[in-house]
Here is the input.
Amino acid sequence: MANLRTILVLLTFSLMIASCGDKLKNVPDNIVEENKLVSLLVDIHLTDAMLTKEKKPHTEKYETAIKMYPSVLLKHNINRAIFDSTIRYYVKFPDKFTKIYDDVLRELSILEGKVQEKPGSKDEEE
Here is the structure.
């Protein structure tokens, strides 16, 4: 009886794990694939940084952002609805989303390093 219970528990646990894995493998068609999402998020964060650095009133930054974000999405051949669906999808899988953001941070760090290596960069002037 105990062996049967153990087998049932293991089988149930295995099915739960398999079903969780299948959800991520069966990514809907309207979801941006991970490597493209990394590139898109890098561009979005670069846009955020550029807007934050500007010395303009908040209302002007907002107006600039309204113009810039659609062009970032267009560059990656997606629209706002697909972007929103993609983010909602990956939020359901925090481990996967964390990995995606680890890749985003790695790419941003690489870009930051390249900027700091250029002659006349801010670090060399100090």
